[in-house]
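Title: Comparing notes on inverse folding

I've been comparing how different people in this forum approach sequence design from structure. To keep things fair, I'm posting one structure and asking everyone to reply with a full sequence. Here's the target:
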């Protein structure tokens, strides 16, 4: 969670939105990218979803 919020504050770019729904769509889109496509060194160079699946199959 801390890693995501660090990314959110530092690297996250939100296009200007005129509605709350537009803002929600932007946040969801970036969360999808972060969880499924952004590799992380602390997670053995896997995405959070890949690492979770790795841990579920290892134990």
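Reply #1:
Here's my take.
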């Amino acid at each position: 969670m801390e890693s995501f919020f660090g990314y959110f504050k530092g690297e996250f770019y939100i296009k200007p939105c005129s509605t709350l729904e537009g803002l929600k769509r932007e946040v969801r889109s970036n969360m999808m990218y972060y969880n499924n496509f952004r590799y992380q060194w602390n997670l053995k160079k896997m995405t959070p979803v890949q690492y979770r699946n790795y841990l579920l199959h290892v134990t």
